[in-house]
Each structure stands twice: as structure tokens, then as C-alpha cells.
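Hey, why these numbers?
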Amino acid sequence: MIGDLLVLLRDRLDAYLHAAAATAGDDSPEDRAQLIDGDKADSVDFRLNAISILLVNIQHENHLRAPDPWLRVTPDGRQQRVAPDVRLSLSVLFVARFKSYALGLNQLALVIRFFQTHPVFDHENTPGLPAGVEKLAVELVTLPQHEQNDIWSALRVHYQPSVMYRVRMVVLSDPAGVTPTPIGQTVVRTRRIDA
């Protein structure tokens, strides 16, 4: 599901960047937004003249849990014991690598403008949103300099103009409502410590 959501965001952003380029008189069919190709294990390769999208972190959002996360009420009103939902937020990096530095910055500004005008993706404004996802909220994240350095060092590449967004709320739930298997007897072992 996470991959599908990133593909959805890429496609929507790519369409927006194509529309902006067409307005400026550039109707090139090349992708303007792309997901990072995962075939290289040592370093990341950001494609030239494109916005590259990279998932940097997945965080568990546990502060929005229900009082009893193991309980779900079915549409007919019955209560059912299920595995609790896992609510995630994704840290997604958008990197502009262009021959012209100014063009790269302008493309990055278009990414910011896109998410400024599209801060929420739901089934009404995004028909391709997976059925298990109610909505996605996207917010700009400003990282401190040392965290930016950590990311670029981990990627093993030189810094490129970039912006990070937090995408929440990706909810992974138990669609079948299967009751979790009970845990067997717990054996407590004690150890004697001689003084």
C-alpha cells in the first residue's frame, strides 16, 4: 500500500508539473516526477532534469489511538476484537536535480505550490486513492541543518535542492476483523543470585 500511495503522489505531481510546463510552452512527454530506482545498493541516483521522490522515514503515529485499540464496532453494531490499526506517517523527500540551478529551484517551487494547493487527498478529489485509505494530509517539514546533513550523508550523495513533506495518515488495518490468536501461557523464570 505504501508503494501505491507514493506512485499516486508521483502521478498527481507529474501531471501538475506537465501542466505548468505546457503553460510555459514546453510539452515534452518525459516524466517530470519519478520515484527513485532501487537497483543500486551503494548510493542513490537522482535523475537529471526531474524531481525525484524518495521515502526517507516511516513513523508510527500512536498518539491518535482509540481508548481500546483491540475493539472495533461493525456496521451492524456488533463489537469485534481485532488487531489494532497501525497509523503511519511517511517522510518523503522531493529532490530537484537540473542542469540549470535556477530551473531546479523553480521546479522545487512548483512542488511546494502543488502541495500548498493540494494539502489533503481524499476519495472526493483523488479517485485513485486506495480503498483502505480514508485521506492523506501532506505538510511541509523544515529539518534542522544537522538532520539534513545526516540524510545526505546516509544517501552518500552531494546535497541537491530538496524539500521534505510528511504524509499522514496511512492506516494499515485488519480488514477481515480476524480475532488475534491468544498468547499461550507465560512462564516466569527467576534466577537465584548468590551473594
User: Anything to note?
Assistant: The first helix runs from residue 2 to 23.
